[in-house]
């Protein structure tokens, strides 16, 4: 059906209407921690925990978290000649989110050439442009093996407390397994996507059928496995899935191929662009020059954030929208306009309108049922929510056994013993799957599962009561020899998170090596340097992406007001990721480590 294109004003009004119907006064509080029958979401179903004696010893560096953040930092430490390292993780193996995410169809939306860190160092050759979860998990294991990070690691071990011993200048790490470990340095890489959350739907604990979260997929119930084998146990089952974000976009097609009936409960449709995955030729890969991965990472970051480059090495949906903005801005400047925030906004809005119109037209071209197609169209700017790229999700809704249940932005009303209610309509289900993601925006201590106590009994939660306070997103005053591995208050590059870890891990390893080489006891950011950094970040007036005009999601604090705390917990370098990477490289290589105090 040919539709008359909306005018700019009509499109803005449509965006506003769709946003307003989804605003909830409870914000992040609409999600709940796992409890009761769902308390097992905090456990590990993939590894049998073996009994062992408590460990009581001392190491040079404890790395909390075995995801890419911890693995890259461990690798960089080993390259600096620091071998007395211990990774501690509650999971039964390394991999972080890619240890937990074993749902069918799981893969990364960022190209493997830039997403998988340390490809050159490990000799890993990705099989395709976008690789599936088992391959990402295997690469994490290869990093750990290549750099000897399994040695001395404590896996299946949850930390209960991290405390600074002022008299001995050591961190004391205690665990749920009775361990008491002393460490000169601690690097915390607990990850931005770590703790599963549940929607706060009345009655979810009353469902009498089978229920689980996508990050704890139950293949014993569904059949199949993480490599893609058919889930034959669902052939006679009515399955419901709540959530239509990045996870659901990937697992709906495999579920559609297996379930007798699949009900997809949608509050907000995702933006689904073309994936167009392609195999990687090993011969071509072998011909890449030394240092190619850093070049590719920087090329992607430049283009994805609106910069200029001679070529697009990655060529994906992330860089596409940014290059459109850049090209339009060039046209405006050529026509005599000046580069101002207003001219950038003009270029951005025109490019985004063009892209989102294309995405909505794509829905019409693929989905045969007009009513279903209309409900699957995203009415918001592309970067209001995490963009998705997939070539089977929309197609799944053409199957007779797949039913889209659009809730008109309100979500599921309630759950009972037999199934799900949406307003006054009931859907009988045998199995209910929660694709509700991980906690974002909750307190750091809650997400990590433990409290960190620094000098004079100051906890990190207290220090960050009004939002993060750091230098470079890594150092926090009052917490000597402690390093934070994340994205906030640094580059804040959300389209390729591992690049943040590569830079921060390299920085941390070099600082620790300097402390050891010069026989210092501690390194700590000064209060003045910390406050100056935060003040500098706060000159960033914000981005047109993920703002209060967006449909609610974790990019914009679920549509709630952005106060000082929320801004500090999400802000990045004012001049952008590339400027930050250049800055931190110069800061690191100068050897002066301005802002840090060595004792």
* Overall strand count: 21
Indicate the radius of gyration in whole angstroms: 24 Å
Average pLDDT figure: 92
Which structural class best describes the helix and strand composition?
alpha/beta
Q: End-to-end span in angstroms? A: 71 Å
Largest sheet: 7 strands, mixed
Estimate the strand proportion: 5-15%
Helix content bin: 25-40%
How many individual helices? 20
**In one word, what is the shape?**
globular
Low-confidence stretches: none
Q: Secondary-structure blueprint of this entry?
A:
Layout: H1 8-20, E1 31-32, E2 56-64, H2 68-79, E3 85-88, H3 97-100, H4 112-115, H5 119-122, H6 133-146, E4 159-165, E5 170-175, E6 180-188, E7 198-199, E8 210-213, H7 219-222, E9 238-242, H8 246-258, E10 261-266, E11 272-273, H9 282-286, H10 292-304, H11 317-334, H12 341-366, H13 370-375, E12 388-389, H14 393-396, E13 402-406, E14 414-415, E15 419-422, E16 425-428, E17 431-434, H15 444-448, E18 451-453, H16 460-463, E19 482-484, H17 497-517, E20 523-525, H18 527-537, H19 564-568, H20 577-590, E21 596-598
Parallel strand pairs: 2-3, 2-6, 4-18, 6-19, 8-17, 9-10, 9-17, 10-13, 11-12
Antiparallel strand pairs: 1-7, 4-5, 5-6, 14-15, 15-16, 20-21
Helix pairs in contact: 2-17, 10-11, 11-12, 17-20
């Amino acid at each position: 059906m040919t539709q008359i294109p909306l005018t700019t004003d009509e499109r803005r009004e449509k965006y506003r209407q769709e946003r307003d119907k989804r605003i909830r006064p409870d914000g992040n509080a609409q999600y709940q921690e796992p409890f009761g029958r769902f308390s097992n979401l905090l456990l590990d179903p993939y590894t049998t925990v073996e009994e062992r004696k408590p460990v009581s010893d001392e190491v040079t560096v404890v790395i909390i978290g075995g995801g890419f953040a911890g693995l890259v930092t461990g690798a960089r430490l080993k390259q600096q000649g620091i071998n007395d390292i211990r990774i501690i993780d509650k999971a039964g193996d390394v991999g972080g989110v890619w240890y937990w995410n074993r749902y069918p169809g799981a893969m990364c939306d960022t190209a493997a050439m830039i997403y998988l860190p340390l490809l050159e160092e490990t000799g890993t050759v990705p099989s395709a442009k976008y690789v599936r979860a088992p391959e990402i998990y295997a690469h994490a294991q290869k990093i750990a093996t290549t750099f000897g990070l399994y040695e001395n690691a404590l896996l299946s071990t949850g930390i209960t407390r991290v405390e600074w011993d002022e008299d001995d200048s050591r961190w004391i790490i205690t665990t749920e397994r009775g361990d008491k470990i002393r460490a000169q340095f601690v690097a915390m890489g607990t990850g931005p996507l770590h703790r599963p959350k549940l929607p706060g739907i009345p009655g979810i604990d009353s469902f009498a059928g089978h229920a689980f979260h996508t990050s704890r997929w139950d293949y014993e119930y569904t059949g199949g496995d993480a490599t893609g084998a058919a889930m034959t146990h669902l052939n006679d089952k009515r399955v419901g899935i709540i959530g239509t974000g990045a996870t659901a976009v990937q697992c709906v097609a495999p579920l559609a191929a297996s379930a007798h009936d699949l009900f997809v409960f949608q509050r907000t449709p995702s933006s689904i662009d073309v994936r167009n995955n392609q195999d990687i030729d090993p011969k071509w890969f072998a011909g890449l020059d030394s240092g190619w991965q850093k070049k590719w990472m920087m090329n992607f970051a430049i283009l994805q954030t609106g910069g200029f480059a001679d070529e697009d090495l990655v060529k994906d949906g992330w860089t596409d929208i940014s290059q459109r903005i850049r090209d339009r801005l060039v046209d405006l400047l050529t026509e005599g306009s000046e580069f101002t925030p207003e001219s950038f906004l003009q270029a951005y809005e025109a490019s985004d309108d063009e892209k989102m119109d294309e995405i909505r037209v794509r829905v019409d071209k693929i989905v045969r049922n007009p009513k279903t197609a209309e409900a699957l169209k995203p009415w918001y700017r592309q970067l209001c929510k995490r963009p998705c790229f997939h070539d089977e999700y929309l197609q799944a809704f053409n199957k007779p056994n797949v039913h889209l249940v659009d809730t008109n932005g309100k979500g599921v009303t309630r759950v009972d013993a037999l199934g799900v209610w949406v307003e006054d309509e009931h859907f009988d289900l045998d199995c209910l799957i929660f694709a509700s993601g991980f906690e974002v925006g909750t307190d750091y201590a809650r997400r990590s599962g433990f409290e960190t106590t620094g000098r004079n009994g100051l906890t990190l939660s207290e220090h960050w009561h009004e939002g993060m306070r750091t230098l470079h997103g890594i150092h926090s005053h009052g917490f000597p020899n402690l390093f934070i591995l994340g994205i906030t208050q640094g580059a804040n590059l959300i389209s390729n998170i591992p690049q943040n870890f590569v830079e921060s891990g390299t920085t941390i390893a070099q600082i620790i090596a300097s402390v050891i080489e010069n026989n210092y006891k501690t390194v700590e950011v000064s209060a003045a340097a910390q406050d100056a950094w935060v003040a500098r970040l706060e000159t960033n007036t914000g981005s047109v992406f993920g703002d209060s005009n967006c449909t609610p999601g974790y990019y914009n604090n679920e549509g709630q007001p952005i106060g000082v705390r929320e801004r500090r917990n999400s802000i990045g370098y004012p001049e952008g990721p590339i400027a930050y990477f250049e800055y931190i490289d110069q800061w690191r290589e100068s050897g002066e480590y301005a802002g840090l105090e060595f004792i």
